[in-house]
Structures are given as C-alpha cells and as structure tokens.
Amino acid sequence: MTSQGQPTVRKAVIPAAGLGTRFLPSTKAIPKEMLPVVDKPAIQYVVEEAERAGLHDILMVTGRNKAALEDHFDRHWELEQALERKGDQLRLQRVRKSANLGNVHFIRQGEPLGLGHAVLCARTHVGDSPFAVLLGDDLIDERDCLLERMIRAQQTYGGSVVALMEVPEDQIHLYGCAAVSPVPGAGDTADGDVVRVDTLVEKPAVGDAPSNLAIIGRYVLAPQIFDVLDHTAPGRGGEIQLTDALREMAQDPHRDGGGVTGVVFHGRRYDTGDRLDYLKAMVRLAVRHRDFGAEFRGWLMDWVDSDEGRGKRPHAEDDEGEHLGH
C-alpha cells in the first residue's frame, strides 16, 4: 500500500446541507452550522482546523436557507466601520478573522441525497488530487492534530484515510463501523494507531458490528472515490452513503486509488450534532476560554455543589423559572 510521489492534499470539502432537525425550532431559520459554540459558530471551528492543516482552499457544499454561512465568511463592511469608529479593535479583529480564513467557496447540493452525493458535488472543484472532507458536527480540539496525521498517512500509504474512534458497544449502531487489521511496519508517535481498513459497515445493529471502531467526521479521500460514488446505489435511509463507496475501495486495495487506512484517534472530540453532547461541548470549551474560562469553571463548580446543581426541587416561587427549560 505504500505510495511514492502522492500529490499533496491542498483542498478541503465541508458538507453543510443538512436540515438540522434535531435542533428544531432553533434551526428553522438558522443553519445548524451557525449555532454558537461558546462565542463563534460551530462551522468556524471546522474551517480553522482545515486552515491549521494547511488546507486553504475550502469548498462548502450547502443547501437551501444556508445564506448565513456565506455571510459569515464574507466581509461585513458596515459592522467593521462601526467598530473602527468606536476604537473596538478586539471585536474588529474577531469579526475580520472569519473573512480571512482561507479561500472559501460554496456550491449547492440541490437535493438531500446523502453524504456520498454531497462529496460527489465537489468533483469539479477538487479535480484529480486527494482531498479532505470535514463534517461540521465533529469538532476536533486544536491541540490534537488529527487532520495533519491523516494527511501524512495518505501521503505514506496512498488510497483513502478515515478517522476512527473507539465507542461503547451499545453506541456503535449510531456510526459507520470499521473492521481493521495491522499495517505492517506502521507506527505513530502521536495519540493513536494506523491500521488497515478491511471493510466498513454503515450503522450496524448491536451485536453485528465487526469492532467498536466508529468512523468519525474526518476523511482524506483519493480522487478515484468520485468514480465509485458515481455507481454507488442508495443505501441506508435511501441515501448515497460515503461508507458504501469506501467499503468498495477497502475491499479492492489494488485498484487505482484503492485501499483505505484508518487513523485511530484518542484525542478530544466535541460532538455538536446531538443536543446533550452539544451542551457538553459548550461546557468543555467554555472552561478553557482565555477570557473567562477560569471564572466560568469556578462558578460551575460552585453551582454543581448547590441545591439547584444537585437537582433539588426549587422553592415554590421559582417554579415559573423551572418551566423555562422545558
């Protein structure tokens, strides 16, 4: 599987056409990718990750009602001028940062036909070089260089690379799952292992999963994936599944662009695709915030020890406020 002279990975694709139904009614008028995680939208964390990995050419695959994404990564001259007049350089810098994150392009998916179809929409933009795919629901901590490691793995072994993470067995049915074997001579001095992916199963039933290694939302794909997606029939949910196309590539490693490598990740991942996990991600990132993290952590510890934090029923006069969280 070792590959010499692999083209450099320079482009990233971010599928962002989902409806965000799990966050309704918040996402009725606001794209789920624009929901704030502490003080910036989730999608900005993903674009910043691509930038850190040296991927400055970024294509977002969007759908209807996603204009806010384009607005966020564009200049807002009136706001900038207002902040300049106030002398508010700190907020001006923050506003300008999102517009200065690489070269961000946008394309419409048209029909919600699945992740595989969203990737296929990027074909013309990507061309004939390997490229990264980053899903907006998974945020990877900036201290954990997962994408950089995946790019190195692709340069070394060729083919495609998926990010894998161990999950509890009773949760594997929520993910694509990988059956893996060792890669001879492979090693990694970071916080995970490099493995060969033998096959992939999309959301297997509990008890049928070949392992507890789940595919998380980072991929580095060989351009030959487009030809496979072209003839991939709709799978689970009636959608074109990227997992199905990658399974074909994994099971035929000698074909052009074939073979799939997995990078097993043991770092910090923040899942913003589920309401409870979104709240957990918010807290985990807030306690690290450079401006108020220490103060927030202190308040949180005090609150957890309070009657309210321990879940005791509030006094009668607080009952009205209790209902606000329902």
UniProtKB/TrEMBL annotation:
Domain of life (superkingdom): Bacteria
Protein keywords: Nucleotidyltransferase, Transferase
Name of this protein: UTP--glucose-1-phosphate uridylyltransferase
Gene from which this protein is expressed: galU
SUPFAM superfamilies: Nucleotide-diphospho-sugar transferases (SSF53448)
Reaction catalysis annotation: alpha-D-glucose 1-phosphate + UTP + H(+) = UDP-alpha-D-glucose + diphosphate
Transmembrane stretches, start-end: none
Record-linked Pfam families: NTP_transferase
CDD domains (UniProt xref): UGPase_prokaryotic
Chain segments carrying region Disordered: 307-326
EC number: 2.7.7.9
Ranges of residues in domain Nucleotidyl transferase: 11-283
GO molecular function ontology, one term from the record: UTP:glucose-1-phosphate uridylyltransferase activity
Species, as recorded: Flexivirga caeni
GO terms (BP aspect): UDP-alpha-D-glucose metabolic process
InterPro entries reported in the protein's UniProt record: GalU_uridylyltTrfase_bac/arc, NTP_transferase_dom, Nucleotide-diphossugar_trans
NCBIfam families xrefs: galU (TIGR01099)
Family under the similarity heading: Belongs to the UDPGP type 2 family.
